[in-house]
Amino acid sequence: MAPATGHKFTRNNPVVVVTGASAGVGRAVAVAFGRDGWRVALIARGRERLASAAREVEQAGGQALVIAADVADASAIESAASQVVSTWGRIDIWINNAMASVFAPATDLTPDEIRRVTDVTYLGQVHGTLAALRHMREKNKGTIVQIGSALSYRSIPLQSAYCAAKFAVRGFTDSLRSELQHEGSRVRLTMVQLPAVDTPQFDWARSHLPRGLQPVGPIHEPEPVAEAIMRAALEAPREMWIGSPTIQAILGTMVAPGFLDRMMARRAWEGQMTDEPAMPRDGNLFDAPPGDPGARGRFGSRSRQHVISVSGTTMRGILAAVALGCVAGAMTIAWRVGTKRTVTRPRRLPERERAARMIG
Q1: HSE on the CB side for 126, CA within 13 Å?
Q2: Does the reported pTM lie above 0.90?
Q3: Mean confidence (pLDDT) of the chain
Q4: Which DSSP category does 129 fall into?
Q5: Could you tell me if 152 and 170 are in contact, meaning their C-beta atoms sit under 8 angstroms apart?
Q6: How far apart are CA 154 and CA 245, in angstroms?
Q7: How far apart are CA 229 and CA 211, in angstroms?
Q8: Fold of 15-307
Q9: Model confidence at 26: pLDDT above 90
Q10: Chain centroid to CA 136: how far?
Q11: Burial call 64-87: b when 16+ CB within 10 Å, e when fewer
Q12: 64, 99, 242, 340 — which has fewest CB within 10 A?
């Protein structure tokens, strides 16, 4: 299919790889890059949705390469990276977006469910990162983007396996970043922390809960979130925090984790379920579900059309400045209070001197 905008693609057109690109945030990201004339390699399991997403990328103005693969399979992702390079000669940006979750109390999860969530959400990003690095290190350039979440910092109930995997991605990324700096590599590594997004996952994720699933609000539409991810991929800050709920959750965890524990016990438990009754379902954990829902879910009427984003380094600097200002203010107040309470007492004479003065 010819691109709608008439881009002429050459070997100089940049190349981006997006995992989990057949639906939700990954699909919106792929289309956003296509709109800017990128060559986009789309990796996911569902062939039907991949073909549809590829058409959207090309209609937007990009060039698409479809690769059906499971990110939990390291060899399949290695082969996918090699296929991109053999087809287009390069990988400029690799975005690790694929994820899987199970909605249930931790005590209701099976070992297989926990393992599968870990294989997709954590190891899938590890596999993608290492596959991209093997090609990027040869040219000593490129950018790898890890799609994280506010849940990379602030865990919530009913998604323990997913939260643990996102925490693990952050740990792996920080270690790797130091290793790349140690070797003087010019390959860039960034992590993007997302807010709640209206995607189809809430209709096909595995669940053991008695009611329907929903994201904990405020909810954001995938397209503005995708634009922010694209900006992070191009600028490559250490971290990008997207959405005011993400910023609040991360900073709140740094300042008052115990308070947030109690708040999540109340709000996030009920907040992840609708009022509609539901039966437990297998979902997409082990097999790709049929159909092609696209990028958006069913919460559009409640979703925000705009999103703010800020560098995590900037926000930490602001928090540190505020904290130092509070400490300095407290010390000043304490000094002033202490000064006002200081009373100059007359020097007490020795007992013999007092007696001598009285005689005299």
Answers
A1: 18
A2: no
A3: 87
A4: H
A5: yes
A6: 11
A7: 32
A8: Rossmann fold (3.40.50)
A9: yes
A10: 22
A11: bbbbbbbbbbbebbbebbeebbee
A12: 340
